[in-house]
Design goal:
The complex is a heterodimer of chains A (about 120) and B (about 110).
Chain A: E1 4-7, E2 10-13, E3 19-25, E4 31-37, E5 43-50, E6 56-57, E7 68-72, E8 75-80, E9 89-97, E10 104-107, E11 111-115
Parallel strand pairs in A: 2-11
Antiparallel strand pairs in A: 1-3, 3-8, 4-5, 4-9, 5-6, 7-8, 9-10, 9-11
Chain B: E1 4-7, E2 10-14, E3 19-25, E4 33-38, E5 45-50, E6 56-59, E7 62-67, E8 72-77, E9 86-92, E10 102-103, E11 107-112
């Protein structure tokens, strides 16, 4: 299965600043996804990032707050802008595999963000 | 609105017992139903998945039971072990094309020694 590396694994940031999270995949993938998991909660999809096109954002998430880059088929970044304590969450990168095992969606280990 | 409802929220099972987690969905277009296991500090890991053309799928101690008419599916963990203590998420998607996963709210499982 695809191996996903996320950086940083955790960070503590001051409110009003921005953090860019990197997601590197060991194989070329068409679709990459960014999720947010608030403490003790389920996963909520932020956006879908396809190479060569603008990211598609889910309801409640906007590009100005969560800009995404997808420069090639193995890499993506998510920026959390103008952070507030409410942005404290785990941010997860995910890819979808259409072939091989396991078929389906693979997740990185996440970036644990604390905003103070 | 697409929803996947998961229960129970938390579960305590004795070592060697059977853990059962249930999910129900609304969107009949869903055709791919995975279960994820998440340990603290880690991302979710795909455990087992099923498509609606079968009623049951077993992989080792983990079994998914699927009831298409009731729009329900469940995860059974046989001979539960302390190492199974984790949070489990059910999910659903339209498996082909550019669909995304809709997750349940998760079940925190504790297997006591």
């Amino acid at each position: 299965s695809a191996v996903i590396s996320q950086k940083p694994s955790r960070d503590i940031c001051q409110r009003g600043t921005s953090l860019t999270i990197q997601c590197q995949v060991d194989s070329q993938v068409t679709m990459m996804f960014w999720y947010r998991q608030q403490p003790g909660q389920s996963l909520t999809l932020i956006a879908t990032a396809n190479q060569g096109s603008e990211a598609t954002y889910e309801s409640g998430f906007v590009i100005d707050k969560f800009p995404i880059s997808r420069p090639n088929l193995t890499f993506s970044t998510l920026t959390v802008s103008n952070m507030s304590p409410e942005d404290s969450s785990i941010y997860l990168c995910s890819v979808k595999q259409y072939t091989g095992a396991p078929y389906g969606y693979t997740f990185g280990s996440g970036t644990r963000l604390t905003v103070v | 609105q697409q929803q996947v409802k998961q229960s129970p929220q938390s579960l305590i099972v004795q070592k060697g017992g059977i853990s059962i987690i249930n999910c129900a969905y609304e969107n009949t277009a869903f055709d791919y139903f995975p279960w994820y296991q998440q340990f603290p500090g880690k991302g979710p890991a795909l455990l087992i998945a099923i498509r609606p053309d079968v009623s049951e799928k077993k992989e080792g101690r983990f079994t998914i039971s699927f009831n298409k008419s009731a729009k329900q599916f469940s995860l059974h963990i046989m001979d539960s072990q302390p190492g199974d203590s984790a949070t489990y998420f059910c999910a659903a998607s339209m498996g082909s094309g550019y669909s995304t996963l809709t997750f349940g709210k998760g079940t925190m499982l504790l297997v006591s020694p």
